[in-house]
User: What shape does this take?
Amino acid sequence: MSELLDRTKLAEVWEQIWDKGNVDILDAIVCEDYVRLRRGESAGSSLDQVKAEILDIRQAFPDLTTTVDAIVKEDNTFAVFWKSQGTFTEALNGVPPTGAQVETFGCNLLTIEDNKIKREEATWDASELLSDLGLQSLNSAFEQHEVEPVTANFTGNPPQEAFKAFNRQFVTGVMVVTTLDEDGKPRGLAANSYNSISLDPPLISVCVQKTSSTYPALFKSNYMGLNIMSRDQLDVLGVFAAKGEDKFSKVDWESAPNGSPLLPGSSASIEVEIKERFQALTHTVFIGRVVNATATENEPLIYRAGRFYDSQNLTELS
Assistant: This one.
């Protein structure tokens, strides 16, 4: 076993595991109580969990190549400095592939006992790679700022119906979010979870459910269009609020400078360059920089409690 753990052999093993997916090699070089700890993590991962994560990453990045830059040995520890490159071509942890190439770096500290790896402290994990692609998880962001992360537990107070009642009282506009898929086909969905983040720089956010048929195309795209529906576009809104494969065959549309579909007759439209994609359980929050904008005198639709209203006859409160 000693030769497996010298610098040369350890580099060879690292390549076999990460570049070729031969994760069972780990069985021979780790202790029975082996654990890997990642930055900000206290519980750690078992050998089986580590193997599964490596294979998931290998599947998402089939052309992954890893270079071991240096291995430093001191007493009973090895510090492995490495870098990896790959193309995101398959889904990872429910995140659709973007086709983007990424290069990421890390250092793993290996503690040796009885000539086997007992403990591994990693400065990198899968979320780091996603972050390099602009796909940061909201949980990761919360951890960085010592805020309690979002969990999948929807029980407790307030009950879901009470939260729904709260949301129904919030008056919003309605928009259609649009993009082009990989084949250049226009895609779109209705949404009302939009926010203006800042005017300088011109940043916005929009939240999209992952089950939407438009979601994969939107996730992979670099640009999207946001069209605020006017009081005369209730029928257009109906097209995008319903399920359908070729929604744009039923409406008029035109291309923005970067290709995003825009809907004539809207109260206003913008085209946005997607900058970040934050994962929030069932939804993704897209952060974008506005690259062009148009506005008309067409009065917008208003949405409240599942119903639509004409905004033209609103009475201003004194």
